[in-house]
Amino acid sequence: ENIFDRSRMAPKTPIKNEPIDLSKQKGCTPERNPITPVKIIDRPQPDPWTPTANLKMLVSAASPDMRDREKKKELFRPIENSEKSDTPDSLQYDIVDDSTVDEFEKQRPSRKQKSLGLLCQKFLARYPNYPLSTEKTTISLDEVASILGVERRRIYDIVNVLESLQLVSRVAKNQYCWHGRHNLSQTLKMLQEAGELQYGELMTFQHKEQDLEYKFGEQKKETTPDSQDRPLLDISEPDCNSASANSRKDKSLRIMSQKFVMLFLVSKTKIVTLDIAAKILIEETQDTVDHSKFKTKVRRLYDIANVLTSLGLIKKVHVTEERGRKPAFKWIGPVEFSGKTDELRGHSPTSDPLPGTQSGACARYQICVTGKQRFTCHTSFNGAQPCEETRRKVSSEPNSPHQERQDEYCSKMINLAAVCRQKIEEDTRNSSITSPFSLLPVPGDSDFCVNPLPQAVFPVVQAEVPNLSLPIGISSQAPHPVTPAASKTENGKPTLVSNQPFLCFPSSSLFMLCGGLQENNLSETLATAGDKGNQSAEAQAAVPPAVCQKRSSHKCTSPSSCVDDEEPAAKKQIMEQSDLPLSLVVPKKPFESTKPESTQGNGCSSAVHLETYHLDLTSPAAPEAANKESTKSLDCQEQEKRSDEPPPGNEHTSKEDPNQPFQPQYLYVHPTPGLSSFNLVFSANQAPGVSSLASNQLPSLSVPCVMVPSAALTSFPLVCSPSFTSPLSAVPDGSFSAAASMNFTMSSLASTTPVFISTTAVVTPRVSPTPSVDPQQPAHPALHLSPVLARSCSAVKLDSPVCVGHPVTLLKLQQPSSAPLTPKSIRPAHHEAFFKTPGSLGDPVAWKKNEGNQTRNASSVQRRLEISGTSPD
DNA sequence: CACTCCCGCCAATTA
DNA sequence: TAATTGGCGGGAGTG
């Protein structure tokens, strides 16, 4: 049939082709008119010959043999014989086939012969792995399809996967450009980086525990949503321009392919089982699990796996587990790319830019552990980087739909943080550092603003949620930091690290903090939270310190438990009430961020919804808007409540004026599994220059971070140091810079209550860090922000040197139980949107829908909650 | 029977 | 409107 068609087609094609033909394909088909034959094949040709018709006829009537025969004809023969040898000339097959039809019949083309993998090999054989840069090889889909004797649909399957790895790119209709493997390593690197952000936690987790499966799967699920949101980072990134392309629906196959690859790159074992991958990749993953959905995903994964196998990147293996043997694939491709991965290790900070990205987005985070130690994590956001468009949007308006992107970033950020955390944790352990964090038990509380904090503590709703999947008591981890002040609270008290701009908290989850929340919001939030779940919460809100303690005491026997209860409520409320996406500012692009200064005032967004992951860019406008909105919503809803909150006097000191320019925004990173108890909080607003890589000097850190012991979060108030503006002004080690401290003053915090929303805690830190503060420590935790962060920071910079810490409310998104409403129940709709496949997610429309609503948030939250359900109490 | 995954319908997008 | 893309899942081949 094919042959026949071709012959026919040939004549026609030229016409079309010619115009199209621009590219001369070099390697491409020898045929002159490769170009699309036009669907002649399918086209209804009057002739009985139509391929389709024939096939059908045959199929229906013919015996399998018949079918086979024909198929065979199509082409595969050669392949069979010599798979390895790539038959360079696939073209000829056809011819051969004809002659050998009979043979075929005998041979019966087994299914294998028609496999996608084989087809892919043939396809690849046609093009050089490393084409000369000069030549541009264009691929005509029709041509290839005809040559290979398959329907075009199959070619799409191959091309889509190749495209995900950037081996080819689409240039026009029916036209793809062959790039070969020149960029493969770079692409893989990007994917790895992106994967670490998205799945790093999970993977780590996984490794730790042998069982990948459940936890693994589950965790991934959790995380997945985030990741999913982002459209192909990698691919798209490079061409931000092509954003337009993005608009399209998501190309799930491409995205799936990338994600699938990411899983391998992130996995230490380099082995990924199909079911896990499928779970991870299933957008919505509800527990409900559509079985059918799962099956479909698996089918797709096989498709992808076949292509990747042909590329020599993976191979099929079987993982034997207790349950039995599962199909899996092992990565056999390159593992080390030029080193980006290392970053995590904290090596060179080089700004190695991701390929696509401009930035050298390596971010280095140093955390002071135990006061002494510093851990550095370098992460680069590759994919993370938003396209310009996104950026713009972000900058332009807070609420705008753009947020989706922002969200993505946020999520990435979060992931990063998590990763960093883990690393840190590991390092710490290794180093034998017992107390991981230099929390602030702030010795001299008074000394630092920080000190006050503990007491003043923000009412935080618990952030932490035990990991769902976490097997170990990770979730529970709440290490109780020893912090003095915190002592009451079980967890930790946030301590400020001397010098450092960041704070350590005991809890593990990531949170996005927004500085400058308006008190209203916070209070409201708190109040609501308190109402629902915990009175304590309320109390906390009102009286942070005391409350916290209380909570901890009563509720929190175990931090986790406490958290759980509260969180849900908080979440709900938050979600419901505030539509705002995040107030956080996330630095998306490292450099660009322009937003910056202005933000100050606005910058503080009160609450961040992890779920949403919206990050408000540092851009001033956005934050403001966010704040406003959030505020509004909150206010409206709960204004009544707010009144209460005002925390104890000390906190007030610097109330945040909600309006104030300064309000710092912070990112709180939920601790990932690996990271035992660290939570990082970054201030978005940091001084611009901050990002200085010079790790050593604290001052260099432009970003203030707060480390929080995982457990601690609940009760802790957050302290933010604004060290930034003049970050350089390094604060002397032991002490925080005065300015910083100033900022921190509780009072200020109190006044403004920042809300923290934690995303689900993915991982609970296993290690309970005892927060110890080393005031003296020089350890300046120099954080190196990822480019993104850096950017944001820079952008954000506060005008005023001081950052005001606002009390933060942490919400736990995850916990399902406590909240009366289950996430799902609450907002299913959003849910869907939220979790959709990347592509879908990417879809602006979807987001828009959500945007207005909290629902979005809710959805994310919900999701998490569901997952997290397991958290140990 | 479970695992693979081919095949092609048909909807979404584009041209 | 026609063509191109590509999601999707039935159901067949394989072991």
Automatic annotation (TrEMBL):
Record-linked InterPro entries: E2F, E2F_WHTH_DNA-bd_dom, WH-like_DNA-bd_sf, WH_DNA-bd_sf
Keyword rRNA-binding: no
Coiled-coil residue windows: none
Keywords: Activator, Cell cycle, DNA-binding, Nucleus, Repressor, Transcription, Transcription regulation
GO molecular function terms listed in the Swiss-Prot or TrEMBL record: DNA-binding transcription factor activity, RNA polymerase II-specific; RNA polymerase II cis-regulatory region sequence-specific DNA binding
One Pfam family it belongs to: WHD_E2F_TDP
Cellular component aspect of the GO annotation: RNA polymerase II transcription regulator complex
The keyword Transcription appears for this protein: yes
Chain ranges of the E2F/DP family winged-helix DNA-binding domain: 111-180, 248-333
Location relative to the cell: Nucleus
Biased composition (Basic and acidic residues): 65-87, 217-232
Protein name (Swiss-Prot/TrEMBL): Transcription factor E2F7
Gene name as annotated: E2f7
